[in-house]
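Input record (one chain):
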Amino acid sequence: MRRRSGFTLLELLIVIVIIVLLTTMSVALLSVFFRGQGARQGAMIVTQVLAQAKQEAAKTHKYHFVVFSKPGEEGWMEIHKDNVLNSNGLYDGDQNPKTDDSDPIVPDSYTELPRNVSFERSPTWIGVSPSGYCTFNSGFQEMQASSFDKIMNGASPKPVGDVILRTKQYVMCLDIDRASGKVRRNFFLNDDK
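The corresponding structure, as predicted from the sequence alone:
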């Protein structure tokens, strides 16, 4: 009797079932891995834009301003250069960079946040001096580091910070150090509204 070479229908079905199971498990694992990446990526973008404004301010010896989109809108930022001298002949920030036409946008500084990420809370702008010191627009209540730590390390953390980025389910809270112009702390929350 001659033996046939090849696969039986049962063997092929078993292989197909194994492939489908492995694919399903891989997709589930990847979705867990990528959860909240938009909010985290948005926080990295804010950090990079602040660093770019600090670099520009140091290079030109003029104040620069990071202007933020309004909370709830599609998230974006842009950097403006201060071109207005004060009474002492210094560039010290005119406190209204978005409406003053003499403060041009730094070329290639318009930056968008990832899709579906917006600011839940942010100042209208953050001014960066040539030494790296930050100022916030008037009326903005800066979050103190001790308060940020107390709330975030408490039993039920809630979204607080100087800048809060939100996706549908995830929140990234940033605490900005006024003296250095850097993001001092950040905290990631699963906060499904």
